[in-house]
Specification:
Length: 224
């Protein structure tokens, strides 16, 4: 199963991705986490791992990728064959407790130019990735579409199932979240605002919590 974790900036995409990856791995599943956010440096810390080398380097670096794209008028295919998780070269992932982490690439310097090279390589990689029933690819996306309703519309327009994960839920905001969604039957779980998660997040530590909401989300995903 390939899962894209989307939402507005700071809503908890990387936190939910990390907690979910760990929960699925505890159940013996093989997990690939894809860090596709070029500007944030939090995910590998939440997973307690080293930041892997930029995957765009495998294709000669960002500038080479851009050249290939432009010379081919954006038709260049970076993958000749389908890949499995095992095909990812050793230099380009970190591994811990059944979770592999790879990174499309980060912005390392000022004025590096556009990030479309990383986006293109990763989009093609995900399209070419073949998974078994026991493997999950979790994509931690950069902050994007903010509106619950729009996310629902876009997913339906490409015939992909989508589910909402409410995060940082409090007694006060829960009702507002329900009012904002496209379809409340699509709300998979609500994860409360948790001081433990917040503290580890602020300190850049590996997340150690096992919230019930994430355990429930994991069981739900395994059941569909
Ligand atoms: N359930 C929660 N309870 C308390 N704090 C949380 C919770 N979920 C996330 N946070 C905190 O909120 C902040 C943003 O979380 P996170 O980095 O996961 O969001 P994000 O959506 O990935 O952000 P970005 O859009 O910048 O990538 C972090 O400090 C994190 O520790
Ligand atoms: Mg993030």
């Amino acid at each position: 199963m390939k899962i894209a974790v989307c939402g507005k900036g700071g809503c908890g995409k990387s936190t939910v991705t990390s907690l979910l990856a760990k929960a699925l791995a505890r159940r013996g599943k093989e997990i690939l986490v894809i860090d596709s956010d070029e500007s944030n440096y939090g995910l590998h810390r939440q997973l307690g791992m080293k930041l892997p080398r930029d995957f765009t380097d495998y294709f000669g670096g960002k500038q080479n990728v851009l050249n290939d794209m432009m010379l081919s008028k954006f038709t260049h295919q970076f993958f000749e064959e389908t890949w499995t998780i095992d095909d990812i070269p050793e230099d380009y992932y970190s591994l811990k407790d059944g979770v592999k982490l790879m990174s499309s690439g980060k912005i390392h310097q000022a004025n590096e130019g556009c990030s479309c090279a990383m986006g293109t390589v990763m989009t093609q990689f995900i399209q070419n990735l073949r998974l078994t029933e026991d493997q999950f690819a979790l994509m931690d996306m950069e902050a994007g579409i903010e509106h619950f309703k729009k996310i629902g519309e876009l997913s339906e327009s490409i015939q992909k199932p989508f589910y909402y994960v409410f995060n940082k839920v409090t007694k006060e905001n829960q009702e507002m979240m329900y009012e904002a969604v496209w379809n409340s039957s699509r709300v998979a779980v609500s994860l409360g605002a948790d001081p433990g998660i917040m503290g580890e997040g602020l300190m850049g530590k590996e997340l150690s919590e096992k919230p019930d909401a994430i355990e429930n989300l994991t069981e739900f995903l395994l059941s569909i």
